[in-house]
Amino acid sequence: MTLRLVLVDDHPVVRDGLRGMLGTQPDFAIVGEAGGGLEALAVVEAVRPDVVLTDLRMPEPSGGTLIRLLLERVPTVRVLVLTTHDTDSDVLPAVEAGAIGYLLKDAPRDELCRAVRAAARGESVLSPSVAAVLLARVRPQAPADTRLSAREREVLALVAQGRTNREAAAALYISEATVKTHLLHIYAKLEVPDRASAVSAAHRRGLL
């Protein structure tokens, strides 16, 4: 099955780069591009793609407003945010508007391709720093607790050994999805964006 994609970004060089990366995938077809919100609405309504990859800050409408309008006009489309911004003021409106995923532009090509396929299947995809923002927001009244649970320590110890999520899941007899959830909790508690930073922070704090 070929996934039909529309690229939305006000920087032509960014669209060129995305087209170069994604266009080489045999199951992707770039069926439209736009440099701003109004153009994006027209293009998406005309070609009705499977996935829209969009930046947040560009000529209006943009951000959460653009995402909301895209979904109103083409309810079947999946909107995947690809941006450089991961602050509360960017993440929360986008997710609340209905974005199925939120990645940063420094994501590796393989991760981006996996995210597009996951979005097309209706699966949420979040960069670790974005997930940390959302986790902090859903428990805003809770006191900060940086203590790791016993299971989180086990997961982090395996990650420190270089184990993949799948290998850690097998070692602990849990699902890979559960490992990912534990990692998100670890990132939030240690206030770090990724695996390497989590291991480094844990060593500094004597948690490993």
UniProtKB/TrEMBL annotation:
Entry superkingdom: Bacteria
InterPro entries on file: CheY-like_superfamily (IPR011006), NreC/VraR/RcsB-like_REC (IPR058245), Sig_transdc_resp-reg_C-effctor (IPR016032), Sig_transdc_resp-reg_receiver (IPR001789), Tscrpt_reg_LuxR_C (IPR000792), WalR-like (IPR039420)
One annotated GO molecular function: DNA binding
Pfam families noted in UniProt: GerE, Response_reg
Keywords: DNA-binding, Phosphoprotein, Transcription, Transcription regulation
Boundaries of every Response regulatory domain copy: 4-120
PROSITE patterns: HTH_LUXR_2 (PS50043), RESPONSE_REGULATORY (PS50110)
Residues with PTM 4-aspartylphosphate: D55
Gene3D superfamilies documented for this protein: 3.40.50.2300
Name this protein carries in UniProt: DNA-binding response regulator
